[in-house]
Design brief:
The chain has 185 residues and is of the alpha+beta class. It has two helices and 13 strands. The longest helix has 22 residues. The relative contact order is 0.16.
Amino acid sequence: MSTEQAEIHEVTIEIPAKVKVFEHHRILGVEGPLGKTRKNFKKIPIDIKVDEKSIMLKSQGTRKRDYAIFKTAESLVNTLIKGVQTGYTFKMKIVYAHFPITVKVKDGNIHVENFQGERAARVSKIFGATKVVSKGDDVVITGPVLTDVSQTCASLQQNTKVKNKDSRVFLDGIYLFEKQDGIEK
């Protein structure tokens, strides 16, 4: 048995110049040049202190589980800060064999028209402050919040999934082919 005492982990994350961070009732808000976002830490057992220029995170225990939660919280905070500074871009490709698919953005939704010759458009929701642009056979999804961008992308891909047919033959759909940091102009 080791006589070493386990340590409580803590880290200080510096806040960049153009970013403002505030915490109210364990909800961390981050505001930057691309917009603002927030994350609820009520169910994440970690201590958070926000100063003028830094965020201090501290684990509440010394076990492996506490360390894992601590590192997850650190990653969440870094993702929030990075998102409001540079943003995230996901690129998707429209694939069709016979019926040309068209993608239109209307009223906060993505309408996929003429998918496999269907008369009714398939509709996917746009989450948060995410922007969707259709350029030819590409769909570019951008935004400051990674979870909103990725959920919009996943919703669109899942909505155009071919069912009850051989997936090796019927390749129609809209597929993710590139993820990158930063918002493409």
